[in-house]
Amino acid sequence: MIEKLLPIKGECRCGRVGIQIDAAPILTMACHCTGCQKMSSSAYSLSALVPGEAFSVTRGDPVIGGLRGNDVRHFFCPDCMSWMFTRFDDSMPFVNVRPTMLDDHSWFVPFVETYTSEKLPWATTPATHSFEKFPPPESYEGLAQEYAQSLQK
């Protein structure tokens, strides 16, 4: 379904920073870690892992906040402080987009949930796969293939 919607534009709460995705996500996730709980002011954060070349900032200049390391950086609107996306180091050519920043996010369902070891007892998602921490690195390829197959249904 998402392929019919592409490209999908989006923006922060105030509209100062615009984004766009030009390809379907490789994987969708919900993260229950306490860091994401604090960043999102919610029970978990939502992510759509998009190929780096399929993501663009179309308007404004996001700023780095939250995690500011060399390997992971969270990006926010400098005015409304919406957490919009996360970039990784060069070894991971993906962008983790907060799907609720997209104008149409009706297609989004988390396929994987992470850090269930830290989740709030009442928090549930419809995710197909659950992990106490992050999935082992060797499992991402299989998860991505299974997610792609689920989009064909």
Concise structural overview:
The chain has 153 residues and is mainly beta.
Supply the CATH architecture: Alpha-Beta Complex
Question: What is CATH's topology name?
Answer: glutathione-dependent formaldehyde- activating enzyme (gfa)
Shape field: globular
Low-pLDDT segments, ≥5 res? none
CATH homologous superfamily grouping: glutathione-dependent formaldehyde- activating enzyme (gfa)
- Mind describing the biggest β-sheet? 8 strands, mixed
Overall SS class: mainly beta
**Overall number of structural domains:** 1
List the helices and strands and how they pair.
Layout: E1 8-11, E2 18-21, E3 27-31, H1 34-40, E4 45-51, E5 55-59, E6 63-68, E7 72-76, E8 83-88, E9 94-97, E10 112-114, E11 129-130, H2 140-151
Parallel strand pairs: 3-10, 10-11
Antiparallel strand pairs: 1-2, 2-5, 3-4, 4-9, 6-7, 7-8, 8-9
Key structural traits:
153 residues, mainly beta, glutathione-dependent formaldehyde- activating enzyme (gfa), three-stranded antiparallel beta sheet, 2 helices, 11 strands, globular
